């Protein structure tokens, strides 16, 4: 199944005379395009506001709200989620937290970054960061490794006194990702990224697919990667060339320079 | 004779209907959109305490009126907006009468801005604060239609009509219909009120905001009305069974159910060979629960063998706990004909526990997504296509190439030497 997909992808690429570099579809964080960035946040997985990587989304909310955004992440990317919450002038000590969930709503661990932070009573804002694990193209069904698809981001106050509930806050979130490249290129691939609602479309339910409301509709800026290209091809091919050169070198070493002197001219 | 008359009448009616359909297609379209139009009911507290002058130097009532005028101007066309009051009519001291005092000021439907504004202008702070009964009535106002439904409650005092707990009322309302959210706004709230209003909001997945300025009030209500206008996928209600054999069969889609404390829910999904099942489940904490909790989703064969599970646990304040799983059903090699799809049983259990004095029913809201998509291509190696990468690979290849060259050279020298001796 995969080999046909790869072959067709390769043929297509050749046909379009596009070099492998162009086919490298792991999207790099595009320059910030804040025009049209969302200014609202959802309040549940179902209503999460979709944002693109590299966009700075803002939302005004109340302390105690659970704010949800969703963003697409593709194989080979290591997303970093950053959130800043501007707190009201007077407030008590509050703990804020960001949680990241994958397309199957499984909680994803942060490798590092301050995922939870307590804002002192005089703090004007609190900044949170979460660096996710690298997104892989495939993993075993029993693992919860990050896979290409939609990711959910939840921002909320986890520890807040009743006196602070409902106070207005401003939140700002941004997702960027580092391209890890061939080091993270694994074998195998999902037929469809982990986008909620993908099954409804793939089973050809016409009625559902024409609905304007979808659970998730955003893709990476240049589409989901086909997963066949990685710089491992370059390394391996270059290695082959070097091996051939070294082989010629080794052969030449045993023969000395030019014709052996003792060989008769007629041989 | 009677039959013939009926037939004739029927034919006439049919013709008339056809003619009407052809003549007024616009009307038919309007009907269709109004069935899915988002509905918002603004519930405004007009109790005596709204006279207090502590919002930007004006009375709470004046602030609310000003905010309502701005909101009515900014309401999107597609939203059907209604206004309900509580405590607007009965100024007396009889608790029983006072607690029934809620009225529809402007019916939920297409908005006539001038009329709605005129109705709001007549309001004067009067009576009690019957939040619970007002919410029940507001839910009735919103009844019908398939669009999203939202109640925005604006109050300046806690409910004065115990023992009917408005928080429980909100939970009952949420359990009854799908997609009804209650957002609460407290005008200059005290601690008890914050608790009550945020409890109402959390019971339905809504938000609580405390308001101290007129501008904040208008902005927030506008934001909530706009939120109602956003298209949302509405889940399908289903009821899981307590064992796999009786479980309902689900196809790809979004489902909702209720699960009480200590209960289990079973569902069944058919997964064809070469396809992948993706399921995720979220259990919402819509009432006061103890701070440690978890959820477990298991995919089990019909015979009871566990295939794969998703689990999550947490502690502290939360709205929802969720987990998911993936099960690719392998393609059968060398099988003849179409194989029957495998039936996979999904079991959902959660370990929320209720705080003291918290009602156990209705159960906690559960949201289940099921996707059956084409299966993944399995990996045969850790690295993509078994390709290599890095300096070690280059070194190894160069060394191997060099050695191969040397050997090749020696072999050919040896062959020449043998040839010369002969």
From TrEMBL, chain A:
It comes from the Bacteria. Keywords: Signal. Residues 21-38 have a biased composition (Low complexity). Residues 21-42 are annotated as: Disordered. This is Peptidase. Residues 1-23 form the signal peptide. It comes from Streptomyces cyaneochromogenes.
TrEMBL record, chain B:
It comes from the Bacteria. The chain crosses the membrane at residues 390-411. Residues 39-228 form the VWFA domain. Residues 1-28 form the signal peptide. Keywords: Membrane, Signal, Transmembrane, Transmembrane helix. InterPro entries: CLCR, VWF_A, vWFA_dom_sf. PANTHER family: CALCIUM-ACTIVATED CHLORIDE CHANNEL REGULATOR, ZINC FINGER (C3HC4-TYPE RING FINGER) FAMILY PROTEIN. This is VWA domain-containing protein. The lineage of its organism: Bacteria, Bacillati, Actinomycetota, Actinomycetes, Kitasatosporales.
